[in-house]
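Researcher: Let's do a round of design. I'm pasting the structure tokens now; please hold your answer until I've finished.
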């Protein structure tokens, strides 16, 4: 995940921890994708298959971009990988909404939410590829706002998803949101970005369990 531009550069140890943590995320995401696909095939729903593929693909992209960004030291390459890392966050957010919208909501609620969230994600991706690390606080606020847009559909979610699924879904959102606190502390707290990565892994894990068990 992206680092906040700051006067204090990340140490070698910090970047090593950042790379390893999300490198683990890459491995888990790659291993987890076929499990999601097989489960969706077993369910027999095209919507579940599409949702699982989009969620799994966006997860792999996010963790791959983050790992490469933190692992590479070449200045120019790192700058471009940072843009991709920033943009991939938008895609993961939209990718997480996709199986819920297609498999759980399904009706006009799902289609409307999916259209809005993917429009915002694509605009955010282009924006980040163009401006890079600028407007970081605005981008962070948008990430959080997009994530919690699910509250708009809380009533149909409550009607169509078991309580355990809702707990996992919103528990993942809480993990990401709490992690943002450490994301913003890079300047003052060493290894805060690594801690942020751990919260991201926890959030993704909750959402993976949601998609696997309840997004159909």
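Researcher: That's everything. Go ahead.
Model: Designed sequence:
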């Amino acid at each position: 995940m992206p680092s906040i531009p700051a006067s204090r550069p990340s140490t070698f140890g910090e970047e090593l921890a950042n790379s390893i943590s999300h490198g683990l995320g890459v491995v888990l995401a790659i291993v987890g994708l076929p499990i999601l696909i097989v489960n969706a095939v077993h369910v027999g729903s095209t919507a579940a298959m599409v949702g699982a593929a989009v969620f799994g693909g966006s997860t792999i992209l996010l963790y791959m971009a983050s790992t490469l960004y933190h692992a590479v030291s070449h200045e120019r390459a790192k700058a471009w990988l940072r843009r991709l890392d920033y943009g991939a966050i938008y895609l993961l957010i939209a990718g997480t909404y996709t199986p819920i919208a297609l498999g759980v909501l399904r009706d006009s609620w799902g289609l409307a939410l999916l259209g809005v969230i993917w429009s915002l994600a694509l605009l955010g991706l282009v924006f980040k590829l163009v401006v890079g690390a600028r407007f970081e606080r605005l981008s962070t606020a948008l990430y959080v706002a997009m994530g919690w847009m699910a509250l708009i559909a809380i009533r149909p979610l409550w009607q169509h998803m078991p309580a355990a699924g809702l707990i996992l879904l919103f528990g993942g959102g809480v993990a990401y949101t709490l992690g943002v606190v450490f994301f913003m502390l890079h300047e003052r707290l060493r290894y805060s970005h690594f801690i942020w990565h751990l919260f991201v892994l926890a959030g993704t894990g909750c959402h993976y369990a949601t998609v696997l068990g309840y997004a159909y």
